[in-house]
Amino acid sequence: MKSSVIIFPGSNCDRDMDVALKKFGFKNKMVWHNDNVIPKSDLVVLPGGFSYGDYLRCGSIAAKSNIINSVIEFANKGGLVIGICNGFQILIETGLVTGALLRNKYLKFICKNIFVKANKTQNKYFNKIKKDILELHIAHNDGNYFCSQDDLNSMQDNDQIAVRYCDSNGEISENSNPNGSIQNIAGVFNKKKNILGMMPHPERVIDNCLSSNDGSYFFENLLSNMK
Amino acid sequence: MIEVNEKIAIDHGLKKDEYKKICELLKRNPNLTELGIFSAMWNEHCSYKSSKKHLKKLNTKGKKVIQGPGENAGVIDIGDDDAIVFKIESHNHPSFIEPYQGAATGVGGILRDVFTMGARPIANLNSIHFGSPSNKKTKSLLRGVVQGIGGYGNCIGVPTIAGQTSFDESYNGNILVNAMTLGLVKKDKIFYSKAAGLNKPVIYVGSKTGRDGIHGASMASAKFDDKIEEKKPTVQVGDPFTEKLLLEACLELMRDDSIIAIQDMGAAGLTSSSVEMASKGKLGIELHLDKVPCREENMSPYEIMLSESQERMLIVLENGKEKKAKEIFDKWNLDFSVIGKTTNSKNIELYFDKIKVANIPIDLLSEEAPEYDRKWKKSKLPQKIKFSKKDFKNLKITDVLKKILASPNVCSKEWIWEQYDHTVMGDTIQKPGGDAGVVRVHGTEKAVAATVDSSASYCYAHPLSGGKQIVCETWRNLICVGAEPIAITNCLNFGNPEKPENMGEFVECVEGLNEASKYLNFPVVSGNVSFYNETKDKGIKPTPTIGGVGLIKNYKDMITMDLKETGNIIFVVGKTEGHLDQSIFAKEVLNEKKGPPPEINLFNEKNNGETILKLIKDNFVRSAHDVSLGGIMTGIAKMCIKGKKGINFYKYKGLIDKFGFFFSEDQGRYIIEVKKENVDKVIKILDKNSNHYDLIGEVIEGNISINDEPNLSVDKLADYNKDWLNKYMVN
User: Fold this and answer.
1) Smallest Cβ distance to A139: which of B147, B151, B424?
2) CB-CB: which of B245, B426, B558 is closest to A210?
3) Which structural domains are found in chain A, ordered by start?
4) Is the pTM of this model over 0.90?
């Protein structure tokens, strides 16, 4: 299985994603933001970081970069595209997924393990994961997901809510919401569910010696769907 | 141009006789640009004129030392051709004036020091010290500093893996921000700052030069007065995004051997970087300042030479490599300009539009810089306080513990480190909050542990003991995570060296830390001195900060402090003598601030540490923690909180008072958790190595149980421990 990770100036989880993809068997290539073409891939990943410094709204400049047109084209043809953290912000800025990511509710950067419940129906990202509650990791300043009521209704109707923050018992509540996201939303799909944008970093939790190993389920499941 | 005179020299922070010496050495009066250069190179920050004499004595050599002090950072060997580059540096004065930018650029500066040497930064640490929590500035300074450290480190993508925060009223008008970085490099790919060869192109790369930070180095060597807010324009502004690009571009250029020498533009910017490179190579350097990329119009040679704009590097390149190097910097959208060359004149010669604007022999700026043998006052060991049973009469151990866990200097600092990205790069295996932070050496079985420590109140009470104590504490913290301690870096934060009391604190702290460093074979490989930490003539408590680095051969053998399984037995290794003077217990509970700090017995320190490492190697240690602030009881409570377990204490039968036993801060002690079936084997090893030990209790679920007092729920204790800072920052 072939994957491509896009490097924007200011990306800083590109290597971590490369390491994770390779660990689980992807043949990964790194793609420079100034290139125009994505090499032949089954999966494209927009990694975390601070693309172009994020001095403007997070992800907004990356959404106008050279490479992004071919990412959009790839996605529109049904290719699998993941945006993690800054990558999620970029997906939102390109319009590939719906919503907005605001400053965290308490105006602080948050770096910690969190629990999520993933949507397992009809998508290649979480469908066969046996565990109901995943312990993943967040590290962001602007992850407070927001969208209009209409958009929320339509996404719910289409089953596009991908991941929601919960506590270790699976309870989805205000207490288990780290950043103020509407409906505890940590990640969303596009309508066809080939695109996933989410704030939690699965690539940082892929070994028992790290703060969790639950990211491994994500990559294993993804790979098993692509074979 | 303004005619230079003595008054202008004094305004530049030079002393009368220093100005006289400059004129004598030059055999003429300097012009303004030259005066600016002298003032930057001769100030305390760059010249180490008050500290040099004492720093020369430091123990800087060791089998694993590849590079000691004198370079951008120190380098140690961690085997398999891998090396760790590390250093700590202060950014105190700017952080008090403008906490966000001051702290952010502190992180940026230390990162540059490390990647200048060819190393990819793999971990950041910091030691930050604020005034009393009740001081009206403390909260906003703390918030700004934490956001600044996070803002920079998070963006550039280097994990912040450990740190230290303290509060003390002596920092009310002068906070401390010390930042440390570790980088990883292959032994044969280390880059140095020594220029070599004639007519080699001198290249400027990175951000453009602006008027920010002009005279930052002089400010760092001045004391604060009421007008300090007016200094805001001299605080540099950081741009972590550009630094990230600069990091990647430099590492890309470093893949082959285009670079002869490289130096970041830190304090005193282009001045110190060009002078240092030429001075080390015993060469001259010629710079054309009109070629320096500027972001503001009409910048004068004086301003260009003294700007401390961030994210800039100076490189001496091999001839013919300019084109290739430029392509790399173009790719990363960074400025690149050939601004001069190396010469055999042994002078720094500056031109602007082909007109010579300065010409100074390099020697006068480096070797001829003043060096002082400042007067210093020896301090006496304070008399020991005689605590009596009466002092403890109405106290309960559980109440004392609650109070200590919620005290500002012991409470959990999670509010702080949750704002630092501590997991980026995917190799953090021990996050902040433990004895040391640990990261894997990417792609290998090895891991590197790092810690940063300081104990200002011990140093203030008795500088010599305090200096020793910090080195020992650093050593212990590394051992507690199963790492073999290798070397240290120091950040020496002191008051005014022109005052014999402050100078004495410096001299004796350095002597103490040197003694411990020698005894423990724990050499100093890099460091920084920050003097004039005083406001309105009141100095801070002496605060040497020590950053220690150690190696874990296989990361799977790392130890953490959280208690693991019920039924395990808790040992305290090292002798508890009941020394309460200067302890948190004495200060917070008995309100007694006098007395000597705990004594350091280096023999026991080394012996206990080595035995603990042996026990860890033999796989007998389930968890470990050193005994520090708040003594055994506080240490155990933290292990319980982390592990969500409790302890049932055995009935205390010792000779010293139980408060002395549980809360004293005697040094050289460790708490370890051992499986029942291994207790006899552990005792045998401890006996064989003549280590004193006490068996104090057994791991249970959920409570701390001390026989004649009510049980304490560990969950509740965790809240006490965490709440203080959360509430303080929210209210």
Assistant:
1) B424
2) B426
3) 2-226 (3.40.50.880)
4) yes
